[in-house]
Amino acid sequence: MDKIFNHRTLIALLVVFALVFPLIYADNRYVLHVMTIGFIFTISVYGMNIIAGFTGQLSLAHAGFFAIGAYSLGILTTRTEMNFWLALLLAVLITSAAGLLLGAIALRTKEHFFAIYTLIVGYLIYLLIDKWDGLTGGIRGLIGIPIPDPIGPLNFESATAMYYLVLFFLLLSIFIAVRIVRSLTGRTYIAIRNSEELAQTLGINTKVNKLISFVISVAYAGLAGALYASLTRFIGPDVASTNMVFNFLMYLIVGGIGTLSGPLVGTMLFVWLEQFLRSYQEYHLLIFGPILVIMVIFFPTGIVGGFYRIKAKLQQKKVPKDNKYFNPVPAKSTKK
Amino acid sequence: MAFIEVKGITKKFGGLTAVDSVDFEIEEGKITAIIGPNGAGKSTFFNLINGFHKPTSGSILFEGKDITKIPVHKGAHLGIARTFQTTHLFEQSTVIDNVIVGHRLRTKSNLFDAIFRTRREKQEEDKAYEIAMASLEFVGMAHLADTPVSTITQEAKKRVAIALALATGPKVMFLDEPAAGINPEETDGLAQLMKKIAASGITVCTIEHKMQMIMGMADKIMVLNQGAKIAEGTPDEIKNNPVVIEAYLGGEAIAEVN
What we know:
Chain A is mainly α. Chain A has 14 helices and two strands.
């Protein structure tokens, strides 16, 4: 009971902090912008976590789908002057449809073959965007993507308003991720990650479940991409680049792959670290590299996983046999 | 109508015939054992019935229904469960969290139920939890429900794996070397558990190397050698079968059996 209380307090504090953050930095658009970008990347990384962290299929096409979301919104709003909200919805649907199609093919491969295959799929999406001048503007990119249309009295002209809009989608994304992971559906995904063979003998249709999980993850990427396009108002083929997907992967691994708060922790850490190390330009990789290596060796489940492991060890010393060692589905279901 | 009927099943891997036209019947509610030297095709035979391998020729009938070509997960829905030599449990999770998913195949909650936490989701989660606890109770592991799998013994893991298979609500359970890697005392315990499973109405079919265990509990034994069935019968018939003694048991094993 104590633990749940602490958990809830921490979450409430974080939400309050996120809500008052723009008030603290009301006159600093730059800080708000970085935070908003961080939130958008976090949404994308939550998506990656569902397929890679919980279902155990490392998809490296994630930036490609992020770009499909961004370009769908960009093209729909600039070329057809469609209403922003309709375009946002369509962007997510288009990305999901692309995910369904590509996932159905990609998921015929397994493990590292799947990773390599999706890496190539991601690169093909990049090439397609880069070369298809007529549709995407090619290397020049898409400019003049509009800000979201006002909803009644709410308009999104200020950086603060965009911040709150993205925060809303972030909280929704996290909420849905938590719901999925803690449900029977989530248990199904975790069973597949654990052992596909065993999952099959338990009556789980691994093909269908992996595909659904892939489409969910891709929908997250599409939403994040669409929000990104609307925030930056300019997108180029770079959003689909291989660099981008490895950034997402780095955020996920350092934060904690297969944990519920890992994507938030990892993304926020790196987005801000990158800002602080800005003056060192390319040399910031000299710092990121070793961090990543150390994390993978000593904390394979990232900061969050490591935190739970240390906590569990401390608890184990106090009361043996009451160990909550990295359990992605804690509290409710296990304690009745 | 036989419960499970295997008709002339053959599996070839390239030039190697792993299982060679085997005819076999498994009776309902009994304990059936499959024995044979290493490489005799026992595991392949299991994988054929289970659906992991598709046979080169022959067919498998389960309660009169042809299951030769159905995918593995469909077999589970019909009531075919199995365990593996390596337990495949998720070490970092608790015992109960490993077993809850066993009931998943009897639930209908989908993504929509998950996101909106519908009444169906909640009811089915509760049901899955109850069934998991009951299965753990059955194998005598309920007291370890909240313990991480990484901290329990090998024998306990075997029992948890059996509980997981039980949670799927099977009619027949295939156990692949359940007693591998555990000591004689624990082996007796597992034999007791298998008898208990059979007594509860679930047919048991096991691959096992520990002769003493098999002879003490099996109702029927099939002996495979180089992919072919060389004998079939009660433990006493098998013990005295000269072909079996020649092909498999040898002097040493006879001493152990007697």
